[in-house]
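Internal ticket #5521
Category: modeling
Description: The requester needs a full-assembly model to guide mutagenesis choices. All entity lines are attached below as received. Residue total reported by intake: 987.
Assigned to: D.W.
Attached entities:
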Amino acid sequence: MLAWTIYISFLGAMALLFLPKDSARTARIFALLIAVAGFCVAVGGYLQQRTGELVTVARVAWVPSLGIGYYLASDGISITLVLLTGIVAIAGVLFSWNIEPRAKEFFAFYLALIGGVYGVFLSFDLFLLFVFYEIAIIPKYFLIAIWGSTRREYAAMKLVLYSFVGSSMVLIGLIAAYVVAGAKTTNLVELAQFPFPVHFQMWVFPLMFVGFGILAGLWPFHTWAPTGHVAAPTAASMLLAGVVMKLGAYGCLRVAMMLFPRGLDPWGFHVLGFGSWRDVFALFALIGIVYGAMVALVQKDFKFVIGYSSISHMGFVLLGLMTLQQIGLDGAVLQMFSHGILAGLLFAVVGRMVYDRTHTRDLLELEPMHLSKVIPFAAATFVLGGMASIGLPGFSGFVAELQILLGTWRVFPTFAAFAGLGIVVGIAYTWRATQRAFFGAPATGVEPTKLPPITIPERVGALILLGASVAIGLYPQFLLRLIIPALHSPLFDGLWKGSGR
Amino acid sequence: MISVNYLDLLWFILPETIIVLTALCVLTVDLMFLRASESRLRSSVGAALSLIGCAAAVTWIVLTPQVANVLDGTLVVTPLAQRIQIALLVLTMLTIVTFSRSRFTRHVCEYLALTLLATVSMMLLVSTQNLLVIFLSLEMLSLSLYILTAFNKGSVRSSEAALKYFLFGGISAAFLLFGFSLLYGLSNSTNLLAVTANVHGGPLDPLLIVAMVMVVVGLGFKVAAAPFHFWAPDVYQGAPVSTAALIASSSKVAGFFVLYQVMVVGLAGAEGSTVWHGYSAGWVPMLAIVAAVSMVLGNLAAIVQSSVRRLLAYSAVAHAGYMLLGVLSNTEQSFSALMYYVITYGLTVVGAFGVVAMVEEATGGDTISDFAGFSQRAPIPSFCMLIFLLSLAGIPPFAGFFAKFFLFSSALISTPAFLWLVILAIAMSAVSLYYYLKVLKSIYVAGHHAGATLISGSYFREAVLCVIAFGVVLLGCAPDLLLRWF
């Protein structure tokens, strides 16, 4: 049944193209229905998911002569991210209620992107996963280049080329793995059991990890992310930060780490203090955390603040993955969910609630507007979202980042200290942005700006996202009960049994 | 003398005969009955007759599968050759249908007849293992294509392109003939199998090396591999669109098939090897270099093109580079990967040129800026172009992606040492996305304004484009449909 998340989205995208006339109203209502339907299917899948099991959704031979199958399945990790996609998709449609020109095409590309994302999370065939992964690239380009703002064509091209370079690396790894495994299958479950030679894993693992990591905002390949987020229309930023970056992180975990766990083993020698790819990527992730936070602290553009904070938060995901501790890994998956929700929320506030009304994102220009009086709902949402993302207990960010820090503490104690520093800087930039954007001192003698009030779709969207964050923050077992057994399934055996562990 | 039963021979080459007769019939009907009619009617009748002829030939091939080897390899009819003939005929039919409404010449039926003659030579080219017949059919193909290129008499570009094509083609034909004559001298036979029997591994005869270089030059020209590609940009740009489509699609299929034949069948044993520390001379290292140069040069040169036709030409060079991987690895699997690649590529390119033709009719040019706002003026052809270009870039779920995956993995399976070429090819296809997106950007992003009017195109052509686009998607989603034939 879960497969219908994919089909509904693609069919919806096609149906939108064939809608007779360019009526924005019909298009957005239709898109909302499709997104809600997808979410309902996802929830259905969540309710049916049994802990620790791989639920097969669809399995047919696709290209039998090459051993390629059409194999969709879900385990606890996929279902978490499918749920996330469903939630962000609905919110994204709600926050693009004001898309006017070419609305039909906008939502068609939007739904195609969503369909690709669902597909990646549900694929258990490497070839199929890659197909969906690439399908998700192209709509992003058009969403940004057509409906975007600041330097949109540059940002769109940069984003697509970065993604495509990443996926080329993945394709090389995919073909190499397929050939080395005897060219008989691309099934992830079977490949995970294939004993790839260690020296092979040693070069394919970093190739795949970086390939996917580019999309996850891995430092130093993150530069597409801030420009892309800033240029994108609100819904596309929400999807980019909310789910597309998760595609990368998911690929790192599901493909790179699951298939080539020995790639994380020690090299047996030390270069510049690095003893394994694990050290290298952990350091990259840490740099991402601290660097992203520091850069966010000095931005003038409100959206860049959130853009760089995404790099920082995604750094936590990657650091969590590199701990190879159960607590770190499930923290990482939970952080994917949490950051997806919160980044979506913050981008919605900045892009839709503030920018679409004031037509500026410059913090200095926003300061005299005293937005907390003019659009109090936006201010309140941003404060709540900001607190959630800096890890206030009660919100999802806290549960996730705490677990990652605990995991890191066990393996890289110094790194944990620096990551803590990243959180502190995170508090600083969130506070600074909130202060500047919403609680600036009103310029004396100037009438407060009149702005259109916050609309109902915006309120609903914000409440959905906040609700999801609070729900997971208060009762993380919703997801953890599925994630932890999934991490202990036989698929990840190699990860726990590596020689260094 | 070997005696030949000419009736049998006629039987084996009946499809070719049908096409020749169709060509004559098209000419006759036009010259005798339609001289005075308006050109619309003439082109419709001509196109319809040609299509009927091609369809008859396809039907005949499908209904009577044959195996024959006449006169020691002069005519070889195998199921494989027949399938490729079908592919050639289908591509020709699509070309004729897509461009049946073009208006660049008054001599519509001469044009169609020449197209059919080019098709006949391609069909002969794939059903022979004899060096002389290969050369003859190649020459016949080239001659038809030179004329087709020059057919737009009103355009200087067209004549210039034809002259360039002719000069380069003449030189490369000389190379090819020289190479073939050396091969004949080495083996006392013009049969490819006999040539193979006289070619030995180990240290190669210097004469053989010269012969191989000559042959690679000659055939490299045909498939537009760098550095023998100089004719391609001008021809693609100057020739009538339909000729360019023919050159890029079916002529490419035939070219790659014959290259594969000559190299893998005729020069088996002289492959040489590119394995690290195990290098030995042969055609594999040579073609590997040609492939690498084509990929790099084609893709980098395409980036700076402003004319979409030239862009497609350079991308054709790049694709020739990828496809050479299929020749290099010479296994059964890589052959089917090569055929899948080149056929889907031909299909895609015919469609892409179809859209280019529409843009040219609407705006009078083919630069990227002429495509601006095309999606607003002609949404359906634009969407088809999106599919074609993304397929060329290798984005799933279109045929181009599976073609690349299959080709590259079959190359790696046969020779792991080709990893560097595969990596180069994949890296270069990442580059290629940039210029394809530039065209798409112009179509979808640039020049949108409220008052744009729809182009009143012919529904017929839009329907054909949709069929081709559907084919590209279908073959990409269900590659088995094509794979089981090769």
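Resolution: model delivered.
Comment from assignee: Chain B touches chain A through 32 residues (CB under 8 Å).
Ticket closed.
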